[in-house]
Recover the amino acids of this structure.
């Protein structure tokens, strides 16, 4: 079975034969960084186009179809426009915070890429606290939104930022608890361990009711955490024009925009890793022939297939549901999701101790 | 209506004490804002997310239509009224034509009467379709807008064929309608009825039955029947509070008294009641169209009138039911070829005036939803 790890190993050996270990590490780090930036750009272009096409499909229209074949270069043209556009800083704004905020959003999204396993043995950093790291780093996102909202010195931005603060801090809890359900079942925080635990079956299949509840909670919570409709109160176009990024233009706006899509990709990748087995192929019990055929599909295709399925789900939400009100949003979390997740975690713990899962 | 202090810049620094020292902040929604469809300017005083006060400011799209009408003849001034409530221009034209006919004592041929009612009801459906999509958009759901426009397009195509225009039709003239129906009219209307019945369930599936939508609408923006009357509300806004106010039933004009249709009433008085009224009104309009589409009498489409119309000295008033409520046309004539004074009683102005009353104490997000259910068309409020 071919995998990206062969390429990585050969590269490592080749570099080691030329440089000493320190320089090898440095060069590998730089290469990984460049790869992440490249992936960022590619994902941004693909996801924006995908969003527009999914929206068009739901809204009985065609979507972008003029630039390039089938409109595939539309995002590229949009990016070019945003690069050329002037990045205004309002005169009343806190200049430092205003200009730093979009970069923090971007850096957070980049950091979150580290523990994700894109294919079999293909991971930037398989740290032993992988899942905890994701929860911790993703909380920093709220700081960039609060900074952007406060420093813009605009009332719409401020309200959007405060809404977003309340929202992200609340939904972090449910997302964390639903991640914990899987951690309890697996007994490890390491991403590779979690994936290997699903070699006999994905958690969504062998985890019974607690994992299903955790999966639904996770999807709702991450939709809210990434400020996607129906939880897009931080942007709430019809109320706050554009919420926290009202005053941003040009590339600074584009960074927020890109960070939003990358975050959607990351939370979906985490969801796919925890609940749908990451790059693990789909196996059915002892159907050896069937399992063998499934193994022939490259692991990266499994991973991206599952991730994009979840992304499609989140896009589907956005183009179907009306927006919640701020108090309803917080009620949903504190009165329903949080108690359910807590009881669910207890259930999962009991299940793990008694060994009721497959 | 203007106060200098209330026109604050949204980019002004926010202090912990707010704009008034009591922790309240003032924000401008409009005249350029996605929440106001048009150029309405709302100065909103907020305490956190809670609305303390809503001050509508008008005048951004004032075109002095009433004054302009004074220098236009009785044939000409009707065209200007298409630009008042541009979503029900047929009905505006109709009201003016009826008022002039009242003064001239002209009998409108039966064919013209049926055509007028058919056009009115098609316009009403088209207007409610657009309202439905726009209101869902206010609530953050974008898709319904496109679904509503699918049906609305086929109505616009029918209008285009017969009247030559899609928005400002200018089809009703004193004495009847401007030209006869297009030969395909009946076929196209039946096609529309078929399409509408096939697709209407999507409206309920997409929005009405949605739990988020119902939570956003039910019990929000309560308007009591007493308040609805005292603020002069009309149309779906009044009927949502249980106030019977359908001009087609109370003061029937044309052939409405011979038609079978119900006045739709809801008693809850909240946003959801106003929403349901309009959805059910579309069904009643469909009922009216179905009764008439196969029974368009033969004959003239316009009564014989003089080339230059002169209304006798006196005052004439005619009210009709537009998609938004009661439109009154009041003409004072000195006996000449142009009116001495014209006054329009537009439904939107009265309906807008309740906004402050129903919005106080609710959240900012609900204000947008309430404005949606009031179905405001700004050029109608601000003539």
């Amino acid at each position: 079975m071919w995998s990206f790890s062969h390429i990585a190993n050969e590269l490592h050996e080749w570099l080691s034969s030329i440089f000493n270990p320190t320089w090898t590490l440095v060069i590998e780090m730089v290469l990984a960084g460049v790869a992440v930036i490249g992936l960022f750009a590619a994902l941004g272009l693909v996801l924006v186009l995908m969003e527009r096409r999914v929206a068009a499909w739901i809204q009985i229209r065609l979507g972008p179809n003029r630039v390039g074949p089938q409109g595939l270069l539309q995002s590229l043209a949009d990016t070019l426009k945003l690069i050329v556009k002037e990045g205004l800083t309002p005169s009343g704004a806190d200049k430092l915070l205003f200009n730093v905020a979009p970069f923090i959003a971007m850096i957070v999204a980049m950091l979150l890429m580290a523990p994700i396993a894109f294919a079999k043995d293909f991971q930037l950093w398989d740290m032993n606290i992988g899942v905890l790291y994701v929860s911790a780093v993703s909380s920093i996102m709220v700081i960039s939104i609060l900074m952007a909202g406060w420093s813009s010195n605009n009332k719409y931005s401020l309200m959007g930022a405060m809404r977003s603060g309340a929202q992200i801090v609340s939904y972090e809890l449910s997302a964390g608890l639903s991640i914990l359900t899987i951690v309890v079942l697996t007994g490890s925080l390491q991403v590779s361990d979690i994936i290997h635990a699903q070699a006999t079956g994905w958690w969504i299949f062998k985890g019974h009711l607690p994992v299903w509840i955790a999966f639904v909670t996770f999807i709702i919570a991450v939709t809210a955490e990434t400020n996607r409709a129906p939880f897009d109160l931080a942007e709430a176009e019809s109320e706050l024009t554009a919420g926290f990024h009202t005053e941003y233009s040009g590339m600074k706006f584009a960074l927020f925009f890109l960070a939003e899509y990358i975050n959607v990709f990351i939370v979906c990748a985490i969801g796919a890793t925890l609940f749908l087995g990451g790059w693990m192929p789909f196996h059915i019990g002892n159907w050896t022939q069937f399992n063998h055929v499934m193994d022939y599909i490259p692991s990266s295709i499994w991973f991206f297939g599952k991730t994009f399925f979840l992304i499609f789900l989140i896009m589907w939400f956005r183009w179907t549901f009306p927006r919640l009100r701020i108090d309803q949003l917080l009620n949903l979390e504190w009165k329903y999701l949080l108690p359910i997740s807590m009881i669910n975690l207890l259930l999962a713990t009991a299940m793990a101790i008694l060994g009721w899962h497959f | 209506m203007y106060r200098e202090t209330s026109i604050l810049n949204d980019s002004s620094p926010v202090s912990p004490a707010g704009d008034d020292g009591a922790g309240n902040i003032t924000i401008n929604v409009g005249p350029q804002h996605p929440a106001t469809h048009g150029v309405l300017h709302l100065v909103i005083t907020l305490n956190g997310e809670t609305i303390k006060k809503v001050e509508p400011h008008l005048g951004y799209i004032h075109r002095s239509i009433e004054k302009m009408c004074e220098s236009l003849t009785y044939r000409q001034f009707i065209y200007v009224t298409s630009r008042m409530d541009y979503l029900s221009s047929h009905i505006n034209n109709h009201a003016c034509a009826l008022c002039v006919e009242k003064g001239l004592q002209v009998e409108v041929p039966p064919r013209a009467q049926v055509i007028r009612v058919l056009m009115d009801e098609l316009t009403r459906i088209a207007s409610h379709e657009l309202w439905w999509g726009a209101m869902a958009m206010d609530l953050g759901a974008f898709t319904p807008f496109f679904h509503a426009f699918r049906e609305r397009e086929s109505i616009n195509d029918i209008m285009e064929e017969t009247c030559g225009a899609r928005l400002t039709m200018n089809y009703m003239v004193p004495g009847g309608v401007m030209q006869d129906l297009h030969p395909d009219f009946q076929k196209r209307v039946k096609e529309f009825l078929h399409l509408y019945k096939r697709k209407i369930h999507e409206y309920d599936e997409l929005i009405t039955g949605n739990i988020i939508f119902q939570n956003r609408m039910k019990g929000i923006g309560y308007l009591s029947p007493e308040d609805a009357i005292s603020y002069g509300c009309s149309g779906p806004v009044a009927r949502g509070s249980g106030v019977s106010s359908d001009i087609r039933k109370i003061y029937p004009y044309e052939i409405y008294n011979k038609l079978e249709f119900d006045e739709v009433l809801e008693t809850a008085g909240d946003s959801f009641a106003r929403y349901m009224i309009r959805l059910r009104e579309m069904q009643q309009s469909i009922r009216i169209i179905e009764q008439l589409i196969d029974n368009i009498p033969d004959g003239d489409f316009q009564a014989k009138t003089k080339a230059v119309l002169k209304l006798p000295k006196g005052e004439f008033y005619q009210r009709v039911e537009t998609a938004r409520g009661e439109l009154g046309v009041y003409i004072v004539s000195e006996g000449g070829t142009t009116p001495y004074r014209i006054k329009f009683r537009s439904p939107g102005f009265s309906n807008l005036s309740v906004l402050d009353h129903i919005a106080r104490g609710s959240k900012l997000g609900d204000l947008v939803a309430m404005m949606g259910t009031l179905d405001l068309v700004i050029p109608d409020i601000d003539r």
